[in-house]
Amino acid sequence: MNRNNIILLSVVGFFAILFFWGCNKYNGIIKQDETVNNAWGNVQTMYQRRADLIPGLIRTVQEAGKNEKGILESVTKARAGITEAKQDISNAKSPADMERANAKITSAFTLAVEAYPQVRSTEAYLKFQDELTGTENRISTARSDFNASVRGYNIAVRTFPGNLVAGFGGFKTKEEFKAAEGTDKAPDYDKAWDKGKE
Hints:
Elements: H1 3-91, H2 95-115, H3 121-158, H4 162-169, H5 189-197
């Protein structure tokens, strides 16, 4: 082989290596970009879960609260019925009067016994808290996973020689989730609760 052929083969080999290295680097950045897109989709899914879940849970809790209110009103009426029945017993003049008073007591007792086991709003609120905590944890995990994906991608895009391939391919750095301003302070739940009762 003559010297010109060796130089030509060396140049072609160099550019072939450079081409395959560039393709490999480019494909690596594409994979990382797709990982970021997938992680972003997971974040969106978790936020959608929250958006779908919370209103339904609030309605459930509200309905349970209404149910409990009705039950407690019934129990209060039952107590009033017992008080009234006691007066009827004191004023009874005949067995029929006593039976009517007894029927009021039985009715009030039955109402109270049937109502109390069905009071579920405390359970609904506990479930609401559990679901809300679970949802917030899932969102936090999805955001952390997204940030980890973005970090890996940004490192690949910004470090040499990947930044050359990224610049050629039009890849730009992506933004991570950051803590919102004021999240370093614990929320004042008492104030929010008091406001909600107004």
